[in-house]
Amino acid sequence: MSGEVVIDLQTAVKELVENSLDADATNLQVHFKQYGLPAIEVIDNGGGISEENYDGLGAFSPSVYMPSQ
């Protein structure tokens, strides 16, 4: 896990693209749903996440700020 702090849309997209490149992706698509407000979808042909790292998926740090909706 990178532990990257995401403060804006640009930082989020940069981190997602870097993750794809780290997974050796050679084909990458980024889709913004409603300008990225509810979701950013990344589709790539990278190696993915290995099984030993599954436990960390979706883990939140106590310092994560979730704005009210």
Looking at this protein, list some descriptive labels.
69 residues; alpha+beta; globular; MutL/Mlh/Pms-like
Question: Would you give an account of this structure?
Answer:
The protein is of the alpha+beta class. The protein has a domain at 1-47. Helices cover 20% and strands 17% of the residues. It is built from one helix and two strands; from the N terminus they run αββ. It has a two-stranded antiparallel ribbon. The protein is globular and about 30 Å long. Belongs to the DNA mismatch repair MutL/HexB family. GO terms for molecular function: ATP hydrolysis activity; ATP-dependent DNA damage sensor activity. InterPro entries: HATPase_C_sf, MutL/Mlh/Pms-like.
Specify the biggest β-sheet.
2 strands, antiparallel
Global outline: globular
Helix content percent band: 10-25%
* Global Rg: 13 Å
| Helix-strand topology string | HEE
DSSP, total strands: 2
- Flag low-confidence runs: none
Rounded mean pLDDT score: 82
Please tally the helical runs, counting DSSP H or I stretches of 4 or more residues: 1
